[in-house]
Amino acid sequence: MRNVWMTLTSFALVSVAVAAEGKELPANDRYVCSWGAGTAARAQELKLSGVSLYAARQKLQTYKFTKGWMRMMAMGITEQTYDSPSRAKPATVRQSFYDDCVRFKLARK
């Protein structure tokens, strides 16, 4: 009987681990993370090239955004990027932002 319980318990643990690992992001969440990562990378490029936060905000005002929430989100991402003391390359910022966003979205589910 003890062996049966141990076997059932191990199968249950394996199935929970597989279910937790198998989560996949919906396309909309992947798009949001990818768009945000690109925005953060562009903001880091501007920051490293010496463009002021004010000028970066003005540049954002000229962009055409496809969704209503994008402008304010881009402003927030840009401000956070400028507030950070990081001097990392834009590609590193892009990857870091994307990885953190995906991790956050998966943890929320």
From TrEMBL:
The entry's keywords: Signal
Keyword Signal: yes
Keyword Signal: yes
Signal peptide: 1-19
Protein's name according to its UniProt entry: Valyl-tRNA synthetase
